Amino acid sequence: QNGTLIHLFNETEFIPEAGLDENLEKMLSQNRLQKASNKEIVCIIQTKGQMSIGDVIEFLEMGVKVYEPVGSKSIIARFPISSLQFLKSKPYIHWIGIYKPEYKYYSIPSNSRMPGAFIYPLGGDKPKYRHDLDSLGVTIRGYDTSAQFYDVILDVSRFQEIANLWWVKGIYKESEFKLHNTRDISEDITVNFEPNDSYELIMSHKT
Questions:
Q1: Which of 45, 92, 179, 200 is the most buried (most CB within 10 A)?
Q2: According to the model, what pLDDT value does residue 193 have?
Q3: What confidence score (pLDDT) does residue 49 get?
Q4: In whole angstroms, what is the distance from residue 31 CA to residue 47 CA?
Q5: How many degrees, rounded to 5, is the angle at CA 68 between CA 64 and CA 71?
Q6: What whole-number distance in Å separates Cα of residue 132 and Cα of residue 71?
Q7: Nearest residue to 139 (alpha-carbon basis) of 157, 125, 160, 155
Q8: 66-105 pLDDT tens trace
Q9: Looking at beta carbons, which pairs linking 177-186 to residues 24 or more positions away fall under 8 Å?
Q10: Contact 89/97 with Cβ under 8 angstroms?
Q11: Pairing of β 40-47 and β 6-7
């Protein structure tokens, strides 16, 4: 069965072949899973079709935390590396690939002379995310609870560094042009899907 189109944050698209991407295949072939079994990885998972309730329960029992869709039958998810082999063997899985840092921002630098950037997190605003940015010397000007991004001071030269944070979904450079509508920047914690809501998120994006 052919895969379906995956839409990345940097607006590139691709259709994956069945199986695992080369990075995950290498991990399996080098028997690196056991050594890193307590670690988690963020991947794109594409299924072959509609999952049954039993499939979803099994999916979640493997420790899969679902975040956001990236196309039909495709989601960004985080799970223990030890679950990779089991996930690969499931008949409802078409493809699994690492959510790479380069997927998270445009490869061509912005010409914008504005000092800021917008960092979109997986799962909404979290104290740990703020701590990570603070430890890297990134100034947070606010958090947009509607569009769900951190408004920060950040040069494009640091996009790769910030994209290496597992929880970063994507980064946009602040535009030189002001938005026509006023953004509501707030320090309030936004309400988002938590890993406990993975079942609801999977079922709400079935196609």
A1: 45
A2: 40
A3: 79
A4: 25
A5: 110
A6: 29
A7: 155
A8: 999 998 899 999 999 888 888 999 999 999 999 999 999 9
A9: 183/144, 183/146, 183/147, 183/151, 184/144, 184/145, 184/146, 185/141, 185/142, 185/143, 185/144, 185/151, 186/142, 186/143, 186/144, 186/145
A10: no
A11: unpaired
How far is residue 6's CA from residue 23's CA, in Å, rounded to a whole number? 18
Q: Which residues contact residue 44 at a Cβ distance below 8 angstroms, ignoring those fewer than 6 apart?
A: 6, 70, 74, 75, 76, 77, 95, 96, 97, 98, 99
Residue in the structure block whose two tokens are 């994006």: 205
Asked if 187 contacts 143 with a C-beta cutoff of 8 angstroms, the reply is yes
Token couple for 32: 């690196």
* Tokens 């056991």, residue located: 34
CA 173/CA 103 separation, integer angstroms: 15
CB 16 within 8 A of CB 98: no
